[in-house]
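Standup, Tuesday
Yesterday: got the pipeline producing structure tokens again.
Today: sanity-check two examples.
Blockers: none.

Example 1:
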Amino acid sequence: MNQEELIAFKNVISGCLKEDRTAQNQLYRLFFSYGMSIAMRYVDTKEDAIEILNDGFLKVFTHINSYNDTYDFKPWFKTIMVNTAINFVRKMKKFKVETDLEEARNHQLSDHILEKIGYKDLLDLVQALSTSYRTVFNMYVIDGFKHEEIADKLGITVSTSKSNLSRAKERLRDLIISKELI
């Protein structure tokens, strides 16, 4: 962001702090696509993603006073959206353990394979995973949670988190091979 854009953004945040609807609308428009990209990683339908997005923005506007403007807004926003998506999945009771709690086998998607796949193809592949595999994959690989944090947030064991991640990677590898993306 250049200096002018930074000042304009700080004015939007300042307006949101004053509950100015115009400023809130500007913030919504600025971060709509980014928020949707986060939400779509966790759910199957656009309608569910929009619900997550709107719930997330409600939390953003409700807690905007806790945002410290000496830091970048995007990570703060992302944390709210990821947590909102996780809570949505848990609330909808779509998360079910799809493993017998055995220790995860060490299957890894090679980085060179991921580099050859476009973002849209990768998103489509992740969307093809079951909800439980997709949720753990997103939390661990994309959002950087540790297995202990995933287990705590989803109410599962650490070994279940590891196993679901391993199986998600295995399923993604199978999908990549079957779709001949590499």
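Example 2:
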Amino acid sequence: MLAILLFHLFALLASPVLSLPLDSSPPALESRATKYDAKAMSTALSRGQGILGSYSRCSGSMCSWMSKVADSTKVTDLSIPGTHDTASWNYTPLTQIKYLGLTKLIYPSPVYRCQKSSIFGQLASGIRAFDLRVGPSPRNSSELIFFHSEAVLDTSARFEDVMYGFYRFLDENPTESLFVSIKIENTTFGTDGFAQQSLYTTLTSSAAQSYVNPTTSISSLALSSIRGKIVLLRRFSVDQVSPQPSSGLGLNFVDGWADNSAAFSINYASNEVAYIEDLYEPDAPTGITNHVNVKLNATVTNIAAAARKTKGDGLYISFASGEKAVELIVPEILAQGLIVPGVNQGLKKWLTTGAGKGLKKKGLVFLDFATETSGLISAIIA
């Protein structure tokens, strides 16, 4: 117990200045935002700042990089950079202390933090795939908020607020497409049934219908059919939704997700397969370099398979994220390294000057601390 408390104190002292509180003033909306209620949008962007970040219109070449990809490109042939545990960017030691009364004593904040840039910041950096993990709020069990395992990431921002943030981005950048993975992460403060119903209601609402592509199959789709849309990777069941849905909702990844595996596959639709790498806790001899090498090898192996379609002509998903908390190799250390290079630098090198140079069709690549290695996102897109 003393060791955990000391780790908390060290993390707090070493932490940079917390970026909260965020500006709570509602952002100005343009009159052309006609697909949703403007008041609802304003409320969502203000309330959701703890996860979305502060809204401003996206500017820069990475805001619309998909405009340079041909309409005829198959969705399964895209190269899409993403973020693992997208919403954890603001989970600093001070955030953890703020919610200590809700979570009690848990692991130190560096174990849960996987990003440093807000969702709007990630979008501006070129990220197009997102890993959202939700659960009922400890302060109001009728609200769905964001978690990483037992860690409460923010009690103000709701799931629907982040979806409105995505809608806003797509309105301003209609050439882009977003891939959003959604998982019910924590039901300590509510029920799985409530979480299912809330997710389903939000994702089939009148606002969502203009942006969320409910397709359950993507093998025959071209990029043109999903521009300005969100493709769902559904990692939550709808078996407790009432009334029961008469049609599917997104790509079905509810069953078969292997735990801590370097290579597995899921039949997410009839005759459609996803080939996945999600080795989040690499087994290696003691030391950062050994764990980085094992993790990096698993990731680049799946990316190479995606480019060459060696396992089949399906959807490839690679998670370059991971940790080994028992050895104090938290996500930031595995991704960024500590004295020695981490996974992100190794992946960038592999893509730009190594065996992965020139490869296309890389699939979805989810990263920890995605915006912290200059050139990595561009290397995935290339």
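Quick observation on example 2: The radius of gyration is 20 Å. Residues 1-33 have pLDDT under 50 and may be disordered.
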